[in-house]
């Protein structure tokens, strides 16, 4: 990813019920040499975090399962308030991943993913840019292949597949005979296509607007994707 | 017969059984309509009270119809059991005797005592104790007739002779029909049992042959998997040689695959992959296994071909490997990204295998696409 600096660190609120995971997150954030992220609040319920110092967070890192309860149902209200939600979980089956994305979460990280992916994701989400973790890539490939009207192009699909298989973007580029920037574009465009499915949220609109600004997609694309979403959503 | 039975032999036996009960019912009806009714009508003048005889004929008919319905549909039952109906039949029998003038007691007009055994035949058909029931009924019938004869003062030698001829004649017909039909039924059931036993034995033999053939095949595969490296070791190869170690690891992984791939699990491909990953983790390699999608049903040969190259890459991994399985309805792709050194890729039939080395990591991908 590009190393464009924010003028201040990303303010992160962590909603997590396991102290050991919270500790780990603190140490990952502390170990980042660029100090891109700062944890401003943490707790084991959404209320405890958002009613306190977490109210001004740029990004909420939400454990999908808090005290044994799945939080998918709470994601839409957070997104409707314009909050950027990053979900992380041990549940990595594609159905869960897609449901989380449809509910409006910006991205999905599994607890098996590395610290690098985790911080990159948080920073990208804070800047309203799409970031696809390898787990998400696998889920998108499979979901796209099983719908009646696939949205991904063959090249986007190939890039996502290699990304899921664990290659870095340079290796994917070598394998596909294209530049790393194009690989990044393919992967992010795939994410944007799926951002327009499911329910509408201000965060998604910002993501789409940013994608148009960056030249990742054109406004025409969005109309097409939204019509697809409208069909599949009801 | 109302309950569904998938066993064809039993079905055949049941059909034979149904045929014999239908035959019995037909005989009883034919006798009652073809013999008892004409005897009543033709002998009308021989009765003291013809209406009593007609009433007895009707009672006999009602018992006959009820017994037939019960016999043809085992779900039904006679309201007070077969012996109550039997007793009523004997009463009807006695009524016919009483209705006759004393001199007509051996005439065809006294049809009841010769015919009532047919009713007993269908009343006691389904009872296990049918021979005893029938014997007792015949005895009771004979006593009723003897009492009737005594009342008519007809107990001389000629009348007793006639009585015995008719009694034994009708009993022989009725008991014979019952024994014949029951024997027929039994034979059909024996045939069905034998046929079923034979089919079971044949199936067991075929299964045993199949198991034996599978064992031979797997033994051959196990030899193929392990023999070369064992031969090398036996010929003095150095176990500390990394090349020999790799060969051992690959042989072990293949053996593991052979053990796991025929297990009966919902997802045999993933099961085999997991079993291999488990073994390689025990060697100290950190393996990250990720899956996306549901694997469609694949033939054993396809699974073997698909897993061969990833398995070798895994076996050769030194410290870390990422294994992924992506499956859609028409495509299954297994990949391994590991720190293994490059090796000569196997290229089994039916799958495509690709590889790339970059940044010290070996990537291999093995894919199957639905034909």
What is the H/E string of chain A? Answer: EHEHEEEHEHEHHHHHHH
Return the CATH topology of chain A.
Answer: Rossmann fold
Profile the largest sheet of chain B. Answer: 5 strands, mixed
Give the oligomeric state of the chains in this entry, treating copies of one chain as homo and distinct chains as hetero: heterodimer
Helix count from the secondary structure assignment of chain A: 11
Low-confidence parts of chain A lasting 5 or more residues at pLDDT below 50?
1-5, 223-234
Anisotropy-based shape of chain A? globular
Helix content of chain A: 40-55%
CATH superfamily of chain A: Response regulator
Structural class of chain A: alpha/beta
Distance between the termini of chain A: 36 Å
The assigned structural class of chain B equals alpha+beta
What is the 3D shape of chain B? Answer: rod-shaped
pLDDT < 50 runs, ≥5 residues of chain B: 1-5
The structural domain count of chain A equals 1
- Number of distinct helices of chain B: 9
The largest sheet of chain A is: 5 strands, parallel
Q: How much of the residues of chain B is beta strand, in percent? A: 5-15%
- Amount of helix of chain B: 55-70%
The strands making up the biggest β-sheet of chain B line up spatially as 1-2-3-5-4
Q: Any idea of the CATH class of chain A?
A: Alpha Beta
């Amino acid at each position: 990813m590009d190393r464009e600096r924010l003028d201040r660190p990303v303010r992160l609120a962590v909603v997590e019920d396991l102290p050991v995971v919270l500790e780990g997150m603190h140490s990952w954030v502390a170990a980042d040499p660029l100090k891109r992220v700062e944890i401003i609040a943490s707790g084991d319920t959404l209320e405890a975090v958002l009613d306190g110092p977490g109210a001004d967070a740029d990004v909420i890192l939400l454990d999908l399962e808090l005290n044994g309860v799945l939080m998918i149902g709470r994601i839409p209200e957070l997104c409707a308030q314009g909050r950027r939600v990053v979900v992380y979980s041990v549940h990595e089956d594609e159905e869960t991943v897609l449901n989380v994305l449809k509910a409006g979460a910006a991205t999905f990280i599994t607890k098996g993913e590395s610290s690098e992916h985790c911080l990159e994701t948080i920073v990208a989400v804070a800047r309203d840019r799409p970031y696809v973790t390898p787990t998400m890539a696998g889920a998108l490939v499979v979901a796209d292949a099983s719908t009646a009207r696939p949205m991904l192009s063959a090249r986007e699909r190939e890039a996502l597949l290699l990304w899921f298989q664990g290659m870095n973007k340079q290796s994917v580029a070598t394998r596909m005979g294209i530049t790393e920037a194009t690989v990044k574009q393919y992967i992010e465009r795939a994410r944007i296509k799926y951002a327009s499915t499911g329910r509408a949220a201000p965060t998604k609109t910002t993501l789409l607007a940013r994608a148009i600004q960056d030249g990742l997609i054109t406004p025409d694309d969005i109309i097409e994707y939204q019509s697809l979403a409208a069909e599949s959503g009801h | 017969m109302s309950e569904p039975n998938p066993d064809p032999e039993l079905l055949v036996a049941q059909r034979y059984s149904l045929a014999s009960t239908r035959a019995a019912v037909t005989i009883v009806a034919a006798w009652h309509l073809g013999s008892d009714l004409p005897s009543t009508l033709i002998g009308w003048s021989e009765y003291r009270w013809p209406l009593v005889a007609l009433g007895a004929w009707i009672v006999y008919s009602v018992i006959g119809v009820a017994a037939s319905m019960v016999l043809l549909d085992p779900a039904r039952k006679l309201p007070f059991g077969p012996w109550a109906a039997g007793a009523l039949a004997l009463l009807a029998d006695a009524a016919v005797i009483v209705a006759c003038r004393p001199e007509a007691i051996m005439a065809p007009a006294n049809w009841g005592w010769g015919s009532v055994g047919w009713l007993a035949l269908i009343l006691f058909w389904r009872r296990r104790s049918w021979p005893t029931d029938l014997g007792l009924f015949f005895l009771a019938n004979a006593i009723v007739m003897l009492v009737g004869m005594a009342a008519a003062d007809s107990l001389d030698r000629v009348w007793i002779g006639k009585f015995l001829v008719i009694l034994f004649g009708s009993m022989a017909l009725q008991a014979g029909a019952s024994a014949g039909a029951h024997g027929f039924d039994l034979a059909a059931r024996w045939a069905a049992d034998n046929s079923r036993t034979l089919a079971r034995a044949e199936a067991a033999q075929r299964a045993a042959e199949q198991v034996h053939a599978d064992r031979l095949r797997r033994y051959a595969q196990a030899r193929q998997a392990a023999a070369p490296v064992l031969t090398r070791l036996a010929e003095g190869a150095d176990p500390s040689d990394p090349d020999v170690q790799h060969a051992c690891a690959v042989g072990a992984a293949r053996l593991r695959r052979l053990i796991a791939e025929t297990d009966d699990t919902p997802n045999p491909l993933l099961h085999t992959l997991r079993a291999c990953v488990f073994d390689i983790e025990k060697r100290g390699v950190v393996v990250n296994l990720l899956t996306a999608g549901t694997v469609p049903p694949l033939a054993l040969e396809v699974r073997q071909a698909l897993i061969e190259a990833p398995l070798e890459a895994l076996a050769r991994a030194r410290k870390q490997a990422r294994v992924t399985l992506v499956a859609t309805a028409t495509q299954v792709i297994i990949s391994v990204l590991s720190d293994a050194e490059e090796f000569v890729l196997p290229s089994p039939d039916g799958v495509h295998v690709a590889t790339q080395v970059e940044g010290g990591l070996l990537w291999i991908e093995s894919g199957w696409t639905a034909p």
